[in-house]
Design a protein that fits this description.
Layout (H helix, E strand, L loop, with lengths): L13 H28 L7 H31 L3 H7 L13 H9 L29
């Protein structure tokens, strides 16, 4: 469940969740950098230093929290793991997902086959959300 999106994250909206995280991370990091740079260069109306620093601190806090969270989700996407699978299999130590088809195929399974649509908020996720492609392997 994602309180920011006020919805459960599943097959059909995981792409939009990743886009939300990506755009938020980029915006927060850019806002923090631009505001701190303006304080350093003093390119603003005098008397607004406290406001600029407060906003930069808030943007920096948001960036500091969401950037590792986004990187974690990208790592899980590269392994084709859900958060629940990650948490359940964490205690097993080493775990290989039967749905891990390789990084490129995993990206395409969530973001869609057309790379040009990956950054646009349009539905391009293939599949029905019930059946998924698996790797045919047998544990040793």
């Amino acid at each position: 469940y994602c309180p920011w999106m006020n919805n459960c994250i599943g097959h059909f909206n995981y792409k939009f969740f990743l886009q939300f995280l990506a755009y938020t991370v980029v915006s927060a990091n850019m806002a923090c950098f631009v505001m701190l740079n303006s304080v350093y260069d003093s390119v603003f109306v005098p008397g607004t230093t406290v406001t600029i620093l407060g906003c930069a601190g808030l943007a920096g806090l948001l960036a500091a929290v969401l950037t590792p969270f986004f990187v974690f989700h990208l790592w899980m996407l590269s392994k084709n793991l859900t958060t629940i699978e990650f948490c359940e299999k964490l205690e097993l130590g080493s775990y290989i997902s039967p749905y891990d088809m390789g990084v490129w195929a995993n990206l395409r399974s969530v973001l869609g086959g057309n790379v040009m649509l990956w950054f646009l908020p349009v539905h391009s996720t293939p599949g029905d959300g019930i059946t998924f492609q698996r790797v045919d392997f047998r544990p040793k």
